[in-house]
Amino acid sequence: MMWQDATVTYPQGFQAYAAAAGLIVGRLDMACLWSVVPAVFSGLFTTNQAAAAPITVTKQVAAKGWCQAIIINAGNANAVTGQGGLQDAYTMQQYMADHLGVASEQVAVASTGVIGVPLPMDQVQQGMSQLVDAWQQQHSDGVKASEAILTTDREPKTLACDVTLSSGVVRIGMMAKGSGMIHPQMATMLAFFTTDAAIEKSILDELMRQAVSRSFLRVSVDGDPSTNDMAVILANGQSGVHVGTPEDIEQFGKALAHLARQGARMIAHDGEGATRLITVRVRGAATEEDAALKARTAVRSNLVKAAVYGGDPNWGRVIASVGSVGLPFDLSAVSLWIGTVLVLEGGLPVPMAEDQAHNELEADEVVMDVLIGNGPGFAEAWGCDLTEQYVEINAHYRT
Amino acid sequence: MMWQDATVTYPQGFQAYAAAAGLIVGRLDMACLWSVVPAVFSGLFTTNQAAAAPITVTKQVAAKGWCQAIIINAGNANAVTGQGGLQDAYTMQQYMADHLGVASEQVAVASTGVIGVPLPMDQVQQGMSQLVDAWQQQHSDGVKASEAILTTDREPKTLACDVTLSSGVVRIGMMAKGSGMIHPQMATMLAFFTTDAAIEKSILDELMRQAVSRSFLRVSVDGDPSTNDMAVILANGQSGVHVGTPEDIEQFGKALAHLARQGARMIAHDGEGATRLITVRVRGAATEEDAALKARTAVRSNLVKAAVYGGDPNWGRVIASVGSVGLPFDLSAVSLWIGTVLVLEGGLPVPMAEDQAHNELEADEVVMDVLIGNGPGFAEAWGCDLTEQYVEINAHYRT
């Protein structure tokens, strides 16, 4: 696998367009992702009971299994908007289908932004019209598209890679947005993967499920699962390389998982107001699920997050949060490292370790390793520190 | 039931002493609660796997069922301190037993403060010696004791009441501390109830369980269940009034539950950095448990908390958090009131309601009522807004 500083347009046969519809003033705020042929489509969606209208629409597309275009807007989530909102999402789907000349059931819709405000369809129409123009003129720009899907994110999140399979090289690309209301169940607001591999839907579904469960489902910026989360992949086969043998499947799955993991880390790192990425790894749990629950609980702890922000190696908060959930463990078997510094060994504080640990909290990424026993369960989770800026952003998001 | 602006010493036969041991510089930081006779003792304790040493000791006392004294310190939690910490807790228990002339198995221990630092036993010894002196001189002062158990709390939390039973009046008193690391599973750090009623342990256990489950277990300041939480009650029978008839039990249980509920509200209101109390009530759920889960999730949502702080009636965040957990519901049956203003009716935003709702967020207590269906399940939960001060307090708690 070779990393590429590229985006969703890196795999063959994918294009991406951006538009400024005025949903977010002075910025690109709509995008269209396009495959030159219908692509195998797989996705994971929020489990929130208040799932947004575009989730309903795009789940239907995923159920059918093919997608050629995704229409995306930022600035308005089209969530908790009732039947009218659902109608708006279908209108977006239909408009793009009509103008791009594809079946509407192969057009997915994604939205992110404020909840409970009807989509300003005049502006959305303008944006869609710009996107269709750009498509007609082939003004594909993956970087601009990755900017157009952001809300409070500070920077676009894209990455791509080459994967060498038995019969040739395939490419996978990704763009994502995150920032606020980020928490497992799905985690990121929006993540779009593209690949030019040829792959069966059932295999893609399973690889995607695995990749997402160990990446986006392990991110927490603020513990709030969004109404609009989705992570989807389009596989258009344009490389002519088939993901065929078990080794190919393993190889492709690994690459997809790596890409998803990097995407998850980017989202955590760019959490609202964050200054540091926090990685918590739990080892020695009875099961991976238990390790994941404990790791996620630690990274979502406001107290842990605030301590990291303050540069305070207050490991007691890590132990308290790990101890608050999941299967029982023996505290006298618990050890904790902050970075490379062992601060708790077998349930006992290591003398003088805190001074050293202090320096580890200066790093851009703070890694905490928790050993809780001798079970086989391992999991990592990602979060970010809690700052005054997080409060400011979310106290006045709409004002 | 008649409310009294009083504390744990209001019921007959209870005394409380305070000392300044230097655990928190320049403040009272140790207390002793004393009953003139051994009292029936009941309690609920943190379920955190990393439960502190005093929890271990006091659970043993609760298992035996009788308690005459509780020794309490603030400033150090004696948690994650290994065998040495457990020994320190037993030393506190034994010292007080020896000097107050009671069996050590009838002395409970409670601690609150920083995790993972050995108790400075020299200072603790000084504090205990002051407490014994005060006890010998009968310098009981319930108000000072309620101050001595605080950490980052801004004010003491006490309340008492009279309860008229079939054969006379009994009294119940309470002091509590909360503030940080406050979340169900147990909720408050420390809550002490006293009553001069005569009551059987099995009945007291059940009434206490009910009272706590609908009060302290429904508070969330920051979602972090502490290692040291406990809520205990001493019933010393000094009123001579027996909680005998089913009506008496109901009456006494109601009073205890009311008192616990008020204590829970005080703790939420005085959350670290908080400017407002947030009450979320969920109705129409299938079960009380589901309603409680949804209400608790809403009050612990950083996004809801930040919106309340910012005076932003961003009800979408409330719906998103309620929708993220528990049993499914039909969004088109969901209505939401902020204060008295209906902002969402049958899954649809009420036009212009937000401007009115804005004013409701100026209040000292912000109440949000969520109707999610026509089930019998009802529950309320309490939290507080998220402010820059919360971050400041917890980023630099020890520095």
Automatic annotation (TrEMBL), chains A, B:
SUPFAM superfamilies: DmpA/ArgJ-like. Substrate binds at residues 151, 177, 188, 272, 394, 399. Its main location: cytoplasm. It is an enzyme of class 2 (transferase). Its EC number is 2.3.1.35, 2.3.1.1. Keywords: Acyltransferase, Amino-acid biosynthesis, Arginine biosynthesis, Autocatalytic cleavage, Cytoplasm, Multifunctional enzyme, Transferase. Pathway: Amino-acid biosynthesis; L-arginine biosynthesis; L-ornithine and N-acetyl-L-glutamate from L-glutamate and N(2)-acetyl-L-ornithine (cyclic): step 1/1; Amino-acid biosynthesis; L-arginine biosynthesis; N(2)-acetyl-L-ornithine from L-glutamate: step 1/4. The record marks 112-113 as: Involved in the stabilization of negative charge on the oxyanion by the formation of the oxyanion hole. Belongs to the ArgJ family. Heterotetramer of two alpha and two beta chains. Catalyzes two activities which are involved in the cyclic version of arginine biosynthesis: the synthesis of N-acetylglutamate from glutamate and acetyl-CoA as the acetyl donor, and of ornithine by transacetylation between N(2)-acetylornithine and glutamate. This is Arginine biosynthesis bifunctional protein ArgJ. It comes from Sulfobacillus thermotolerans. The lineage of its organism: Bacteria, Bacillati, Bacillota, Clostridia, Eubacteriales. The gene is argJ.
